[in-house]
Amino acid sequence: MDNTRRKFLKIAGAAALAGIGAPALVKLNSTAAFASSEPAAGHGSAAGGHGEVVAATGVRLGMVVDMRKFAETPEMLDAAIAACYKVHNIPHFPDRKNEIKWIWKAPYANVFPEQEVLHKSEMAKSKPFAVLCNHCDNPSCVKACPTKATFVQPENGIVAMDFHRCIGCRFCMAACPYGARSFNWQDPRPFITSYNPDFPTRMRGVVEKCNFCGERLALGLEPACVEACQGSGAMVFGDLNDPDSEIRKVLDKEFTIQRNPAAGTRPSVYYIV
Amino acid sequence: MIEKVLKGKSTYWTWLAVLGTFIAIGAICYIRQYKFGLGLTGMSRDVSWGLYISQFTFLVGVAAGGLMLVLPYYVHDYKAFGRITILGEFLAISALIMCLMFIMADLGQPLRGLNVIFFATPHSMLFWDMCVLWGYLILNCLCGWVILTAERKQVHPPKWIYIFVYISIPFAVSIHTVTAMLYCGLPGRHFWLSAIIAPRFLASAFAAGPSLIVLACLVMRRFANFDAGKEAIQKLTTIIMYAAIINTFFFLLEFFVGYYSEMPGHIHSLEYLFFGLEHDGHVYNNLVPFMWTATAFSFTGLGILFYMKIAKVFDYRLVGIAAALIFFSLWADKGLGFVFGGFVPNPLNEVMEYIPTANEIGITLGIWATGFFILTLLYKIAVGVEHEIEA
After folding, report:
1. Overall number of domains in chain A
2. Which among A106, A111, B82, B194 has the fewest CB atoms less than 10 Å away?
3. CATH label of the domain that carries residue B155
4. Across the interface, do A260 and B123 touch by the CB < 8 Å criterion?
């Protein structure tokens, strides 16, 4: 990583700590990251020995979902989902077969089937959990894609999609251990309720999923779902590789779990249950 | 040689007409799908691969099954297969064409298919599958045609062709191994995440391919005055028997691993396929009848083959019944259960069943009919050459 960027990240981190919060946090992965001439060494270069989980270098965006906050104000999760659907022109299909989902609600038992226990807390029993793409550090969807239509952005670790390159083979859907991907079985455009001209609609025959709002980050905005949570801390977003970032402070303090860690994909989304 | 497809008896033309009808229906269904999208199929977000990919998987096995003729004849100089080895090579050609058609039918954006070459991605198993499938197709076209031409001229085939014949042997193994790797390398799908998938695929392929060849031989014996020879058919039934036994053994090992370890992920798909999976008060079991029919067919077919070996009897009808039963059972196992079962339950432990639509079945039958159409033409040429030599 070049020096200016390192310095910038530090400033951004300090700003976040000082309570300026969101704007600074967002900046760190927009201009600075994209302007970097040297791509982060990042993924794959993480030399983990014997099952060790080693953090990659460079910016790696991640999220903490604090279910305690969502349990307090459940409508916030609905707002977050609605914001995402609006921003990304996600169609509303009436039937489950055609569903397109970027972020959605599911019970604990479905989000963490490998960590299902007999005697669950009240929250795990009754509250809906937020489910979205994990933006894995070692994504099996990227490995499976035969055209590199889905790929890890070296600047920030986002697992992105190129809708124009995707051939619609759906190998990534079979490969994703989290069921995070959706396919446009038919033309989605007639099913978009409110159209946002700032984000492309998709054509039929391609796969899509959460993109961590890469397009908003580039404009210095927070992800739509995070913004909808209005600084409540229900969704904390930032650079997992920056020890001074807000997200790392949360991760250092709280015990978190991840979805199906046994799959070895090293997810970037953490849950406080 | 190609002119031989233009002359035939009325049964030949009727058969081609029947296949042609299915091809036409399939083409119409495909045009509908092409215009609307894959929403015309029964596939969903949860079961994202359906009949097309499952038929593709099964047919890769049928193509690889031709190896069971090529290997004994060319490597072990087993003369009894002299007349039918070409049938194995031609079966591989038509099966591979079906495979490629099924893949194209399954693509959401078929016109972008060449992206797999433009943006070649060696870490994707699909890229390698494309390489080996095309490689095996070209090898079989080359070897089949050159050797048949030499046979027609009643000269020895040129020496250089044997290099390609020998290369085609590991290629046959590789097409089905790489196809297995499409599945067994995915971390989130317990039913597929098993090192026995590739060996099981091969065992099932080495039974399914020869079964189809035996059936074809019996049909041609009846209608085309082509006798493969009793010894060749007998040897093929032995091969089918052992391959089917090994396949069953591998499958039972999956049962042991699942039900003895009692790890939920290892049981769920088997439970769904054979007993029905209970989920939220509803039992999902639409594949159960297929799987048990396949099991019954498999054991009956094997029983008939055992009987013929032990009692030292040989009857073409029994051979035909056994081959048909085994072929169907392997089709239901790999051409239905393996792919659909792997998606149940989904990674969020939810169950969504897959039921193919009429349009999808139309396309599937159309592609099968295309394959059999090509197979018929190729076999017509092979048999025509045989007759020409005899005359």
Report:
1. 1
2. B82
3. 1.20.1630.10
4. no
